[in-house]
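quick q for whoever's on today - can somebody do inverse folding on this one?? i tried earlier but teh output was garbage lol. tokens:
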């Protein structure tokens, strides 16, 4: 009796699967399903830090699954309504969440970027730059940080590597000047019109000031970290840039790389970190050049 009941359940399940058309699956269909599942998983990983975007993504996914089900059941009216909602909704979400989408794409590009020697066509297409920071520039930069630390002048200095920061520079004022300690100190002077925001350094030059940086969405940040530290963590999470932070309250200097904050104990340590950071980048590019 139990066996006949099991056979009946199995037969019903087989009929249902055959009705939905899932039995006639080729290798391409299986590969298609796996790729879609992988894409959904990766997208969810990228947006899981934002509860709002995660909720919207799950809602869209649920609507899409519902649309597939009603289409399989040949419910034409419901399928048409869901299709219209999804088509219009996706366009609306792209417009509404443009900054968040750009942040996700920037993070994706930073992780899987194509590294070149900086002189070819690919470097121009994919935005790779041959960023460098000479010893004299390091000296001027660190001396400016030392002076601002002693005077407790808040500062936020972004050092670009390979990932271009054009969209960050567009939020401020472009300068294009040599790295000079007096210029840096004047930029962050409290009464200066350019002191509020970040200074961007690219290819050994100051290229912009008063720039707005993305704020990290981390919740486990120490209470002693202010908005400058949160902005520094945010931009280093999205790109491969390094950031120097000078606290206005304590005068402490911090070096931020890859979302990790390191407190600087003396100015020589900062010089070493800057030198090593750009030396590592140069070494990676040299190793990737063809013989």
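ok took a stab at it. sequence:
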């Amino acid at each position: 009796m139990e066996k006949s009941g099991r056979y009946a359940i199995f037969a019903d399940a087989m009929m249902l699967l055959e009705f939905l058309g899932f039995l006639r699956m080729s290798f391409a269909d299986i590969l298609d399903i796996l790729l879609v599942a992988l894409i959904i998983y990766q997208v969810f990983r990228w947006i899981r830090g934002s509860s709002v975007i995660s909720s919207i993504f799950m809602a869209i996914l649920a609507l899409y699954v519902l649309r597939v089900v009603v289409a399989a059941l040949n419910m034409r009216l419901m399928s048409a309504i869901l299709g219209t909602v999804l088509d219009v909704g996706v366009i609306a979400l792209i417009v509404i969440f443009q900054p968040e989408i750009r942040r996700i794409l920037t993070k994706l590009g930073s992780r899987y970027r194509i590294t070149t020697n900086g002189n070819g066509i690919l470097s121009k297409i994919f935005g790779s730059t041959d960023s460098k920071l000479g010893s004299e520039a390091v000296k001027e930069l660190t001396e400016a940080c030392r002076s601002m630390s002693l005077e407790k002048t808040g500062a936020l200095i972004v050092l670009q590597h390979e990932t271009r920061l054009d969209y960050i520079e567009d939020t401020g004022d472009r300068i294009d000047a040599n790295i000079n300690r007096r210029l840096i100190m004047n930029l962050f002077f409290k009464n200066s019109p350019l002191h509020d925001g970040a200074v961007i350094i690219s290819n050994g030059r100051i290229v912009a000031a008063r720039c707005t940086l993305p704020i990290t969405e981390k919740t486990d940040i120490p209470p002693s970290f202010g908005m400058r530290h949160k902005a520094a963590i945010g931009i280093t999470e999205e790109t491969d840039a390094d950031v120097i932070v000078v606290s206005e309250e304590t005068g402490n200097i911090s070096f931020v790389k890859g979302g990790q904050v390191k407190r600087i104990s003396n100015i020589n340590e900062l010089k070493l970190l800057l030198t090593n950071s750009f030396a590592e980048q140069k070494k990676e590019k040299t190793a990737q050049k063809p013989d």
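fwiw The chain has two domains: 2-108, 135-288. also DSSP finds eleven helices and seven strands in the chain. so keep that in mind when u check it
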